[in-house]
Structure formats: C-alpha cells, structure tokens
Design goal:
heterodimer; A: ten-stranded mixed β-sheet; three-stranded antiparallel β-sheet; 40% helix; B: alpha/beta; Amidase signature (AS) enzymes; three-stranded mixed β-sheet; 11 strands; globular
Chain lengths: 478, 483
Amino acid sequence: MARWESVIGLEVHVQLNTASKIFSGAGTAFGEPPNTQACSIDLALPGVLPVLNAEVVRQAVLFGLAVQGKIAERCRFDRKNYFYPDLPKGYQISQLDEPIVRGGHVMIDTDDGARRIDLTRAHLEEDAGKSLHEDYAGLTGIDLNRAGTPLLEVVSEPQLTSPGEAAAYFRALHALVRYLGICDGDLSQGSMRCDANASVRRPGAPLGERTEIKNLNSFRFLEKALVFEIDRQIDVLESGGTVERETLLYDAERDETRPMRGKELSDDYRYFPDPDLLPVVVTRELLAEVRAGLPELADAKRERYQRTLGLDDHDARWLVADPDRAAYFEAAVDAGGQPKAAANWLMGDVAAALNRDGHPPSMIPVPAGQLAKLIERTLDETVSGKIAKSLFEMLWSSGEGDVDDLIAAHGLKQVSDDDALTKVVTDIVAANPAQAAQYRGGQAKLLGFFVGQVMKATSGKANPRKVNELLREHLGSP
Amino acid sequence: MTTLGTLTETRDALAAKAVSSVEVVGDCMKRIDAARHLNAFVTVCEQEALASAARADGAIARDGMRGLLGVPIAHKDIFCTDGVRTTCASRMLENFVSPYDATVVARLRAAGAVMVGKTNMDEFAMGSTNETSHFGPVANPWDVGRVPGGSSGGSAAALAAGLVPAATGTDTGGSIRQPAAFCGISGLKPTYGRVSRFGMVAFASSLDQGGPMARTAADLRLLLQHMEGHDPRDSTSADAGPTPHAPQQPALNVGIPREYWADLGDDVAGPLEEAVVSLRRLGHRCHDVSLPHTAFAVPVYYVVASAEASTNLSRYDGVRYGHRAAEPADLDDLYRRSRSEGFGVEVKRRILTGTYTLSVGYYDAYYGQAQRVRRLIRQDFLDAFGQVDVLLTPATPTPAPALGALTGGADPTVMYKQDVYTVPASLAGLPALSIPCGFADGLPVGLQLIGPYFAEDRLLALGEAYQRETDWHLRTPTAAEAL
C-alpha cells in the first residue's frame, strides 16, 4: 500500500465553438493579426455593454445534458475584479454562485476499468487577452483577439487519484466536448486549458494543503506536471516541511513547477452580480430542443459497435476514444467496409501513418469510401493483403485516387487464374529441381522459397492462397 | 419668434420655414459664446453644427420637415459622440474621442437633430453640484454665485440660459431632476430600461438612465420619442412601446408621500403646496400616502452606486486609452499614477467606498444589505401605486445652494443628502418628472412626479396640463434675456 495518496481535481477551460464572442459580435478566429478580432466591446471602450451570445448558452446546456448534470433554470453572471493589462474592463465576466450546470459526471478509462468522476459544476465565462512580453524589448504588447472568447469552465470533484487518472479524465472530457461539437479540441491553440489542484495525504488522513498548477495545455504536460508536483509535496512533507497553498506554473522545458508571480492573482476578486446583464433563463423549450440534438456519445457508440457491428470491447473502446476516429470508422463502414477489417486498418496502418506524420485522426487523407473499397477488394481477393498495403500508401501520399483505377493503372490485380498460375508454378518447379527434391525429401519449409519465386515472377500479384494450393499439388508431399 | 423658444416652437418654426436651421444654430452659437462665463459647455462644435444645419435646411426645402430635422441639441458629455471628444468632465478622458455614437446620439442624429456641443457635468456624473468637473463648475443662470445642480448641470444651465432648446442628460440618483429644479427647467428620468445605455459612459449600471431635458413637459415628450426604444446592444433595455403624441388625461389620484415633506423648509414647501392646489383645480384628487423606507434611500444609494462605479471605472487604467502617467516605472506604477492623476477627489472617494463595500467580509454587511433594503424601497412604491396613480414630491430639499456651500466642508454626505428626494425612484427604477413650480428668493423651485413603471405618458400629460395652468416654466433669468 502506498505511503501517500494523491488527491487531484481539475478545472478545465473549454473554449466553446462559436463564430462570435460571448458578449460581442467580434470574430473568434485563431491566428489572426493582433487586435483584429476585437471590437469596441472587447476593447472596453467607455459606454459599451455586453450582450450574451445565445449560442454559448445552448452549448453549455448541451454539455450539461451530456454529463447528466443539473441545468439551472436561471443563472447569472458576476464580475470578477482584478487589474491586468490583457483584461480590458478590469474585470472578467464569470459565474460565481449560480453556474449554468451543477453536478454531472464523466466516465474515464483506467487500468482497473471504467471509473466515474463527478463534476462539481460547469460555468460560463469570458477569456482574457494575451500579453506578449517577448516581442518588444522592454515593452509588453497586448493582443485582445482572445478577449471575450467564450469559455465553459468544467470543475471536477477532487476524485482523481493519480496523474495518469487526471490525464485520462482530461482526455475523456476532450473527447466528450468534441463529440458534442462545442469545442474544436485543438490543444495547441489553447482550445482546452487545464488548472490542476493537487494535494497528498496519508491514507485515511484529512485532506492535505493543496497547490494549483495553472494553464496546462496538453495531456502529457498535465501528467508530468502532476508527477513532479506530487513528488515535490511528498519530499516537502517527508523532510518535515509544510506544503504552502500557492499557484504554480509548469515549466515543460525544465520539467518542474514554479510559483506564479503577479498575473491574475488577487486576494479578493470582489465578485458581484454584473448589472449589465440580465439573469439567464433556460426555458423548457430550449432544454427540449437541445436534448433532441444530443449526438450519440462514446459509451453508446461503444455498445453499438459491439452489439451491431460485432467488434470486441477492446477495439470498440479504442475507436470511440476519439470522435474523429469513430466518425471515420463509421463512414468507412457506411461505405460498405467490413467493420472488423475497418477497425484493423484504423488500428494498424492508419494509426501508424498518422503517428508517422504527427497528425490527428481528423487529418486522415484517404477518403473513408476508398478505405472501404480497399477492404472490399482485399476480401474479394482482387488484390492481396500486401498489395492492399501498398495501395493504401499510394492513397495516403497522394490524398486522392480511386482504388479500382489504381489497381488497373498499375496492373495490381491479383492473379488467381488457375491456368496462368499453373504455368508459372510448373516452370518454377521445373527450374529448381534440387530444391524440389529437398522439399519432397521432407524439408517442408522450402515451400516458402517456391512461394517467393512465384511471387517474384508475378510481381507479387499472384493470389497467395492459390499459389500455395498449386505448389503443394505440383511438388507433392514433403 | 426668437431662438429662445421651446423645442416645439423651434421645430414648428423650421417646419413653417419661418426660420432656417442655419439661423437657429447660428443664434445658439452666439448665445453659447456670450454665455461662456456659465461654463455650461465642455466642447462646442460650431463648424460641424453649422454644416449639419445647412444640410438640414436643404433636406427641409427638398422633402419637408420631419422629426427633429435642423433642431439644435446639446449632449451631456457622458454620451459618446463619434469624432467629437467625450470627456465625462474628467482629466482621465480629457482627450478621448469615441469611434462610435451612443444609441441616444445616433437616434437623435437620425431624427435630424443638430448637435451644437457637449455639456459640462460632474466628473463621471458623480456629484450634485457640477463642482466636481475637471473643467470647472457651471454657474446657475439665475444666480451665477449658485450651483446649477448636478450632475447634468451643464445641460440644465444651457437650457435655463436659452442657449439651446433641447439637451440630453443622465440620471443615476437625480442627475436630471435636481439640476432641472435648480435651473427652473423640465427634466425626465425615464423608467430604467426605456432609454438605451449603450454609449453612455457607465457610472452605476443598475441606476443609470438617460433622459430628455427641455423647457416644457411637451418638449420632453417630443425629445423622449426620439431617444427611447429597445436597443439590442443594451441587455437591460426594455421594449415598452413608444410614448404617444397627445394623450387624454383622466382625473388622477395623486399621492403625497408624507416622508418627503417632513423636513422641508418653508421656502420650498410654499410653492409645492400651491402646486397641490393647482392639481386639485385641474380635477385631480390628492391623498397622503406613506413610503416608510424612504429614510434609507440615500445610504442604500451610495453603497450600490459606489460599488458599481468602483468596477465600472476599472477600465480606465492608462493601458488602452485615456490618461496615462508619464514614464511609468512598472505596471503598478502605471496603474497607480494614471488613476491618481486622472481621477478627481469625488471619483476616487466613490471608487474607494465601492471597493470597500464589495470586499470579502464586508459584502454582506454593505452591498448585500443595500440590495435587500433596495427591494423594500421598491416595494414601498409598488404598495403606493396600489392606491394612487402618481406621487407628487419636492424635487430637492432647498433651492440652488451657493457655489462651495455643499462641497466646501470635509463631510461629503452634506452633498449626498441633496439627493434625498430623487434617489428612491432611481433605486426602484421608476420614471420621474421634475418641473418648475415656483420661486424661493428668486430661485426656481421644482416639483417631482413619480409614476409606475413605463408611465412616462401619464407623468408628462400631468406635467403638460400643469404647465398649461401655470407659467413657472416660461420664466427666464434676467441675465439670459440680456444675452
């Protein structure tokens, strides 16, 4: 039994997938020149007022329904006051006492099977802008493109017991919001950011003092930061010290956590209800409408893959872990691809190629219909498995083309014709009398030599099953 | 007809082509120039105004009169105006030029009104005397040694001196009604939400309300029609339907809340009592009513308004626009000095008060408690309007005080108490009209009519009827006649 237990809770900021900001009509496009996605409201000019983007509410409700949380009939926005140059109003509009979603849960996969992680709440808020310290010597640049971007902050209960579980939870949430279509899930663009609260204690002891690691934007960094921080806390406690409540940043280059200075820290945010915004009312009509639009989520998909597509638990679980992967799989199956074969392709060559290119499943260049056709042509023995792999590489690298056209153009059709193959086999056996004699003398493994020779002679197009059959016929018993 | 006429008269004269907009606006400019000692304007836009007037004359000649085409108007310098600086009478925004028009400004512009300038006010609308302005105090045209009231003091003084026939104001705790009373003009604080707050520099968001200021109740009606209406850019704006043109007015039950009369001096009580007699003569019935939580209104108001102001003014940090301290040593120094230099004493006092009342450990005792009492004050009014149609009260406890009389001492609550009769309706969000009802030692005295939500039509109709019966609103200061 471990001498220390770790207790972890996450606050994940999910950037909602809207064309305009939470309280203004400015765009939310990423990577635009600084301050081009910011209007007078985002700049907090005198006299401007926020107006709530209704789509943001719809997406939060969708999330609440998906995690089976309680959607507030009425909730409100509060001002969180602090000064920082990339916070134009001097306050962030957020939700303190009345979040739009309370409770709910997310299922995660752990080494010991599925685990339920309860959520405390999910609330809406606006993002701040960005301070650019590097680009201007001695000066700080302010880019307000991100200011006012809608965020759903999802707060978990402190039920995660290891860095690995924390990462699994972050992954599960990442998959969920993409299934719901409420976030593009692009971690590299900051579409999901996570603050981790961690403490350690002796088994059975009350909760220890916690620290908060801010702004983790990858599964791996989350896990590594927590591993470091938990070890650090244990070291502190074992050497007789006490853990201080503090806010930390994770330095990925040095793989360590460090206390954060200044930014966004205040002893007292002086929260109070924002008088510029009316309470948000979620009507029964909206609730019904959003509920009707709930997509099939991972658990339901996994069950369906097993029940109606005949996949095993492992394959189904792997497929549904990523919405883009699952969508691709379903598209291939819908186009006629045999499910088990499609799953194998995805787990095998597709995963390898994605891994090689460093791309996510959303960027599979081969149309799902072509993969389905490739599966079909393999199963009907038009091409061999080996040829199929090279066809797949052609499709992958060009990103276009039709399987049948490629087979025809490159003459890759499998030779299954008995007469043609019989002639090749006869010739090969005749040309290699010594090996044939050895084979007949009991060296059965020499069959592989003959198969290789036939394949060479047919440029790999011979149907391996037929070749084996014919060779055995012509060589006789080993 | 002279340009000292009312808004309605000016509009009718333009419609009849008895006078051109260029003439009317030109006359305004001359009077504004002659009345510079009043300090009623922060910015005068003579060239732009005359050019707009010429365009308006062309449009009238071509298509005839419509709306407020060619009518001169002054905007309180709290309304953002595209291309003309909006200072809020603060050093912080001394050189701030808004890239957009406030909704009120845009609507009046669309109606054809010609903006002649931006009027002086208390800094960020925080004050009851117009003495907190970065650009200096405004003088009361009735007695230049006295204050015009605040915070819309520039607009009130400009109207009293006949510099313009119409002006906009804003009212958070009495900032339209109190200067209207001190200057002998008419002013309306509409129901919270009737007039868009978009582009009105925020002081206290749950209380701020723009409204019309003019010489007569009929003018207020005309002006309000071109200011009001739902605005999708203001989430708190209401869709209450337009104010009608010429209503029929039945006999009303007028409530006289006794709490408002208890401490009233004889100089103000006299004209008010005469007003009651006038209303009775018009066929209305007057009853005593009680609004028991009235005494709490001023402290509640200063807690709520200061709390909201403390965060509304956080955006003035010297980073993006407005005053920035020279050569800041670091970020904290930039914030500290920009705000210390940019804000005046009264603004700082309210930011500090508001910051304190929102702080952890004090929130419940101050802001939370104030909001609870605010609901009681609102309930007082709802109960009263179960019995009566409108409430008649004094607008101010005294006539205009001398410059420095309220602000010279160390105790700011001396000034705050000026708002005792106006803040209750603000806290409840109710419409309230302030119109002249007599004089005390040569200084105007105003009465206030408070109505139920969105009963502006009823208040204005009563005011119009009263002004047909009386001529207090037509009196002008001798000094103004000499301009």
